[in-house]
Every structure is written in C-alpha cells, then in structure tokens.
From TrEMBL:
InterPro entries: Caspase-like_dom_sf (IPR029030), Metacaspase (IPR050452), Pept_C14_caspase (IPR011600). Coiled coil: none annotated. GO terms for biological process: proteolysis. GO terms for molecular function: cysteine-type endopeptidase activity. GO terms for cellular component: cytoplasm. SUPFAM superfamilies: Caspase-like. It comes from Allocoleopsis franciscana PCC 7113. This is Peptidase C14 caspase domain-containing protein. Residues 86-106 are annotated as: Disordered. Keywords: Plasmid.
Amino acid sequence: MDYRLGLQRLKELLPPEAIEEFDLYEGRLLENLKEAERYGMSPSTQADRNKIMSSLNQLARTYGEYLDNRSFNDLCHWARRSESPTSLTQVRGQESKPSSSLPPPGPIRKRWALLVGIDKYREQEFKPLKHCVSDVQALEPTLTKLGYEVVCMHSKLRTTDSLFPLSTNIVTQLSRLSQATELDDLLWVHFSCHGKRVQEKPVLIAYDTHPDLYERTALPVSDIRKVCNKVRRLVLTLDACHVGSEVGRNLPDPEFVHNVHELAEGFVLIAASTARQVAQEWKELGHGVFTHFLLEGLEGKADRHGNKYVTAKDLENYVLASLRDWSIRNKKPLQESTANTEGLGDMILAEYTKLSNQIVD
C-alpha cells in the first residue's frame, strides 16, 4: 500500500467541507509512518495505524459519492497501480473509466458459502471448544433457505471425510468454491474455531494444526484472500477464539483481530469481538453469542426498515447492538463485534423477496 499517494488521492477527491477532518487524520498517519521508518513497527505503532486507517476509511465511506464508493485502502492500491487520479471513475466532476479491465459488478447472480466449525483439535495445546460445530450446523439451513449453495465442514464428521476440517481439506474447498464463483457471484466464508497470531500474521487453527508447524498446518487469513483472489464479492465472518468457561475465555493473542482487519481489503469482514475483548458462548442456546445474533440477523431481525433484504452493514449494526445489550443484561464483560468493509460497498447478504418460503413475514 502506498499511504502517501493514497492520502494525495483522497484529498483531491474529497469535497471542501471534509478537508479539515482529513487534515487531522493525514497528519496523524504521516507522523505514524515516520515513527515506523525510524524505530520499526512496534505493536503500539501498529495499533495506532489501525485506528488511523479505520478513521480514514470511515471518512471515505461518509463521502463515498465523491470517491466512486472506494475506501481509503482502495485509493492506496490504486495509487500504486496508476499514475494519475483519473484512474477513478469520478474526480471532481471529471468522468473517466476505471483502469481495471473488468466490468463493474452487476446484481448478485448466485451466493455460495463455506462454513467451518472446529470443536476438537489433534494437538493438546489447543483446548477443545464447545459450540463451534453447532454454530455452523445452525448456519447451514439458514443460508440454504436464503438461496446459498453451502459447503459445511466440521469436526464431528469422520476424519476420512473430505469435509473434515484438516487444513488441506479447507484449502481444497476454498479453491473449489473460488473456481466455481462467477463474476457476479458472492462467496461467504465463516469460521468458528481457535484463532492466533503467528509472526505478526493472524491465523486460524485447523484440526491438524501443529504448534511447531504453523506455516504448514495453520490457515493464515491472508491466504484465504489469496485462494479466493478471483472472487469479487467475498464475505468473511470469524467467531474465533471463543473458548468454554472451563478453559477460560481468554484471547491468547490480543492483536489477532486488529491484524485481520489490516488485511481486510476488497472484502467484508465481521469478527466476533475487538482485539481487547473475548468472544463468548451462550451455554443455554449452544452457540457462540456472536453466531447466535448472526443467525437472528440473517433470519430477518437485521431488516429493521422492512426492505425485505439484509446488507452487510445491516447485519453489522444488528449484531453489534445485540451483543452490547446481551452483555449488559447478563452482566458479562462487554463484547462488541468489529467490522471492516473495503472496496465493494454494502453488499446484500440476504434477499427475502426471492424466497417462496420466506424467513421473515
């Protein structure tokens, strides 16, 4: 990413009333870049950069009509690939064509989903979880009813099953679905499992992940994006690091979610908690709390305006509000979902008007 040219692009595109706020974030980011160049990227410097990037992306979303609905992350990448700001479709009223040879995406043609739930692990270092499998087993019929073609992988299957969540099996299914996805399709990938940060990179723990062989047996979140590089609409939801009360609901790696968000360019990411919080389970319902409200949102409760569809933003807002309310009512430590939408706008995840047997009234 070329942050400095991205800042230049953003300033050229924003309307005058946004420049004062932009100048504040620009100064903070430039200072952060200088600090990293001088002293290296420390955890605190990385955390500050994540916050600044989030603010700049929010500013870009607020004035999306001036930016052709591109995020600040997008501008940093366009800056690297192009020589002039006219690579965007709209620059201060001037019309031009995108430099990409791909046509703009049309309405969603087909929806696909890969669900991965892992309660048990081969290595004792990874404590057993309780409700990851039930999470994906509940999501599967809900998404199927919404028109998704679903592949469900979980640890209650036979170990010889091609859908048993070995790391190689997961990559194989990701690759297969990526190849099956057409230009105007959407792919939703959901993980309920352990998550960890290894060598500054967020990784997901498969059944056969070995703590001495993370590079070969874990699943870096960045690799999910690489395997699915041809997918133009990719949604990733992570109910990771939620552990049962018997083993303590601690996040072993507090920067896990922050690092995931730094990689969330060109797709929608919704994670179960912030980097400083823990994802929890709801014993009475047999689900992760995050996945429970994810299910409720998909079943129609996130459609608060009666539009007969739910977008990624609708789902994010519903899950966030529900998690806060649940934490207060149950006197639990605050758990808030976190989300990042980059480059693709507000995608429709569920359309009820197309269903013969609607989920919502």
